[in-house]
Specification:
The protein is of the alpha/beta class. It has helices at 41-48, 80-89, 96-106, 122-134, 152-165, 178-184, 208-215; strands at residues 3-12, 15-25, 30-34, 56-60, 65-68, 140-144, 170-175, 187-192, 195-201. The chain is built from seven helices and nine strands, in the order βββαββαααβαβαββα.
Length: 221
């Protein structure tokens, strides 16, 4: 199912954070949401997952949504498999063990499944967060800064995983790192001051950095 966003506006007090945002994202596309700090990326994602309501406009999203927040809160004292089984059990509609085992293998956590989460590197913690976001087989996967703090080897593996996940569902990836958009996304949308300033397929962009600079006036991150 595609994602359709029409004329979304959102303000906090006197500050307007989103301005007439209209966007359609087809199923099976990885969309990179790029913009400076304060551009409105996180606000838009929170509206999509239903955490916040827009002041006006409409949003049509699939019923099943997976979300990986930037800070990726986890229960550090739990084991990897134990944590995922616990989270799956909150809304499981099929065998919890089967679902968790499949996801642990899918995101490359099998060697770490019996470790405490507190023992994991940043890269493996991100994999736990991804596995949790995939519980319930979401049709839409929303990832907020999923590669922040990863080392080069972890970056390559997480990029590959996200690209693979995008073959089966709609993925929205918010980041401030242009290289990540080029490496993982089919399309980029640039937000600045709550407005869409650019919207192009990645393979039609010769210089993403220049596009960003032009779209945001001074290219600030």
């Amino acid at each position: 199912m595609s994602v359709v966003i029409e004329h979304i506006n959102k303000s906090f007090g006197s500050q307007q954070v989103l301005r007439d945002v209209t966007l359609s994202i087809p199923e099976g596309q990885v969309l990179g949401l790029l913009g400076p700090n304060g551009a409105g990326k996180s606000t838009l994602m929170k509206i999509l997952i239903g955490l916040w309501r827009a002041d006006s406009g409409s949003v049509a999203v699939p019923e099943r949504i997976g979300y990986l927040p930037e800070n990726n809160p986890l229960y550090d004292e739990m084991y990897v498999a134990e944590y995922l089984e616990f989270m799956a059990g909150l809304s499981a509609k099929r065998s919890v063990s089967e679902t968790v085992s499949t996801l642990i293998d899918r995101v490359g956590l099998t060697p770490e499944r019996h470790k405490h989460i507190r023992e994991l590197s940043k890269g493996y913690r991100q994999r736990v967060g991804l596995a949790q976001a995939l519980l319930g087989n979401p049709q839409l996967l929303i990832l907020d800064e999923p590669t922040t703090g990863l080392d080069p080897n972890q970056l390559v593996e997480i990029r590959s995983l996200i690209r693979d996940l995008g073959k089966e569902r709609t993925v929205i990836l918010s980041t401030h790192i242009m290289q990540e958009v080029s490496a993982m996304c089919d399309r980029v949308v640039i937000l600045d001051h709550g407005e869409i300033k650019a919207d192009q397929p990645i393979d039609e962009i010769n210089d993403l950095e220049q596009l960003f600079h032009n779209a945001t006036n001074n290219g600030r991150i």
